[in-house]
Design brief:
Bacterial polysaccharide co-polymerase-like, five-stranded antiparallel β-sheet, alpha+beta, 11 helices, 420 residues
């Protein structure tokens, strides 16, 4: 009888050797789906190898320009500073202009004033004087600047080409005489350079003495102006006082009166006395009329006394410029008016003269002392070692500026080349 075929996975093939037990059939796993193959991009073409770098023409031009534009000036500068330039010595002097203002006794009554001050205007004048051609010529005449600044050495930068003109010497002065001026404090400091320390000290001392003379001359001119103005004012006041006094004397000679005001007071007193006498005489006349008969001689004498007194009062009043007939003759009122005018003129002239005399005396007292002077807080010094020229500083500055100029020119050249 035939066996049914089992349903399931396929059986393993029968063993080829009889009597060997058959292995247990294993399930066959389901096969996985095969993924689709990726698209393969073709490789990029490989650039050919870079050739060895070579100097081009522009690089050679830049290198040559660097050598001539930077290295060359540095070498020349170093050769000059350390091999050719002569040592220089500096002398320093510093000063300021001072002004003494001593007050008078009258001013001290009102309070204490400042005893010292600084005149900035004089300092400004002195600063300009230190740069003037006149001072250069004066110092050259005194110490011989041309000889001191043109030593027998070869220094094409700092050596003065003697003899030269005064303009050349003034230009060289500005290079070797440095002036530091602080306008706020009024201090001036000078640094004088020369090839020998004693030469620098001589020049600085001569500058200090010339500055002192200039300040003294300014002070003398100011004092002379003050004295001249006060002297002229005093002369005018004296002449005016003389004229007024002469007019008063002429008035007294013409009127034969020393002081019309005193005479006027006397006349007024006299007039008052006459008026009192007139009143008394009138009272007597009234009394006689009541007690006497007509034709009494006492009555006639009393009436005559009244008439004489009245006439005298009229005359005195005319002299004083009161009443009728004042236009005849010279009355006291006019004389007093004229005299008072002369008195006012004399008092004014006297006050003017007193003021002018005080001003003149003050100007003379001011002229007896030195109002302006040059105060040196640093006297001319003498150097012990050479500090100039400052070789490292000058070399560094020249190298820096040479490199900057070269770099700017190279950048400009390449920018112009790229624009083409």
């Amino acid at each position: 009888m035939t066996q049914p075929t089992p349903i399931g996975p396929a059986l393993a093939p029968a063993a080829s050797t009889a009597g060997t037990p058959s292995p247990v059939p294993q399930p066959v796993p389901a096969s996985k789906p095969v993924p689709a193959a990726k698209a393969v991009t073709p490789p990029k073409p490989v650039a050919p190898p870079v050739s060895r770098a070579r100097l081009k023409r522009r690089h050679k031009v830049v290198l040559i320009s660097f050598v001539f534009g930077v290295i060359g000036p540095m070498v020349v500068t170093a050769w000059y500073l350390w091999m050719v330039a002569v040592d220089q010595y500096a002398s320093t002097v510093a000063f300021s202009v001072r002004k003494e203002e001593i007050s008078s006794a009258v001013e001290f009554l009102g309070g204490i004033t400042n005893l010292s001050g600084t005149t900035s205007s004089d300092t400004d004048i002195l600063y300009e004087f230190l740069q003037s051609q006149g001072l250069v010529a004066q110092i050259d005449k005194e110490v011989g600047l041309r000889a001191l600044w043109s030593k027998p050495v070869f220094d094409p930068v700092y050596d003065y080409p003697a003899p030269g003109t005064i303009e050349d010497l003034t230009h060289h002065w500005a290079r070797l005489v440095k002036i530091m001026y602080d306008s706020g404090t009024g201090l001036i400091e000078l640094r004088v350079q020369a090839f020998a320390p004693e030469d620098a000290t001589r020049i600085a001392t001569a500058i200090y003495l010339a500055s002192t003379d200039m300040i003294n001359e300014l002070s003398a001119v100011a004092r002379e102006d003050a004295i001249r103005y006060s002297r002229d004012e005093l002369t005018l006041s004296v002449e005016r006082l003389k004229d007024v006094r002469a007019a008063v004397t002429q008035f007294r000679n013409r009127t034969q009166i020393i002081d019309p005001i005193i005479d006027l007071q006397s006349q007024a007193n006299l007039l008052g006395t006459l008026q009192a006498q007139l009143a008394q005489a009138q009272i007597e006349v009234d009394l006689l009329r009541e007690t006497t008969r007509a034709g009494d001689p006492r009555m006639e004498q009393a009436e005559r006394r009244v008439r004489v007194t009245e006439d005298q009062i009229v005359e005195e009043r005319r002299k004083l410029g009161i009443g009728d007939g004042t236009e005849q003759g010279q009355v006291y009122a006019n004389l007093v008016g004229e005299y008072e005018r002369l008195q006012v003129d004399r008092e004014f002239a006297q006050q003017t003269y007193t003021s002018a005399l005080a001003t003149y005396d003050g100007a003379l007292a001011e002229a007896q002392r030195k109002s302006r002077y040059l105060a040196a807080y640093v006297l001319p010094t003498t150097a012990e070692k050479s500090e100039y020229p400052q070789r490292l500083t000058l070399f560094g500055l020249i190298a820096l500026f040479a490199f900057m100029i070269w770099g700017i020119l190279v950048l400009v050249a390449f920018s112009l080349k790229d624009r083409r």
